[in-house]
């Protein structure tokens, strides 16, 4: 059943702050999506990424301060889409950009992005996507070459392209995201974005003015040296997918590679940060 997800329903007592800690720990271990509810959280991980003793590394499950129980089901990706269609509301980021589904009415903003995420990450609902959109809105992309690494739905690449970036490469390691980005670039008339499936191994010899990477702490720390090699002089790199407490380690990794911290945004304890050469 490759391609399916495991859906973990965690019942947590008391719900906060344990939910937040649990989401952070599961995020490090490769869980991809989280839905918070009154009783706890539901968390999703691809079946192929789950190993039997994975939850043994989740410290909060061993904590005596909280009572946490869970049950797990295997689900098909398509069920997620139905859930998403039921629950998805358009997102407005600042006054210039909205992210909506094809079935929502057109919005009257400068950048009206249409996304059908299915199982891919990147609707603008998550703090990290929201902040990356804010950083893109604040910067000049006209005629800049751009890499969107870990493109998910392609939302960041699409916005950069709408703001004049060219050429734009959007890369994701996940086949579903690759296919979903192809669909979304077509929906937004951004077919000139080049979409590829893979990871840092694809980047050998490439050069970009701007790099966007909203992935997670560990992958960023591992792949930053590869991204840095791809950055043109005076280029900028925008990173997210990590918590506020990890900003110092990300900042140090960038500094060691000759990248200076420019600014960061914070939302719900997550960070999006800009670095430049
Ligand atoms: C947090 S999502 C971000 C999606 C989108 N860019 C956004 O901002 O909403 C991270 C994405 O990175 C992809 N990913 C994970 N590891 C990766 C890697 N080593 N190289 C490229 N993409 C990766 C995942 O499949 C996922 O789509």
Automatic annotation (TrEMBL):
Its EC number is 2.1.1.-. The keyword Phosphoprotein does not apply. S-adenosyl-L-methionine binds at residues 129, 150, 172, 214. GO terms for biological process: methylation. It catalyses: L-lysyl-[protein] + 3 S-adenosyl-L-methionine = N(6),N(6),N(6)-trimethyl-L-lysyl-[protein] + 3 S-adenosyl-L-homocysteine + 3 H(+). InterPro entries: Ribosomal_L11_MeTrfase_PrmA, Ribosomal_PrmA_MeTrfase, SAM-dependent_MTases_sf. Its main location: cytoplasm. Belongs to the methyltransferase superfamily. PrmA family. This is Ribosomal protein L11 methyltransferase. It comes from Christiangramia oceanisediminis. The gene is prmA.
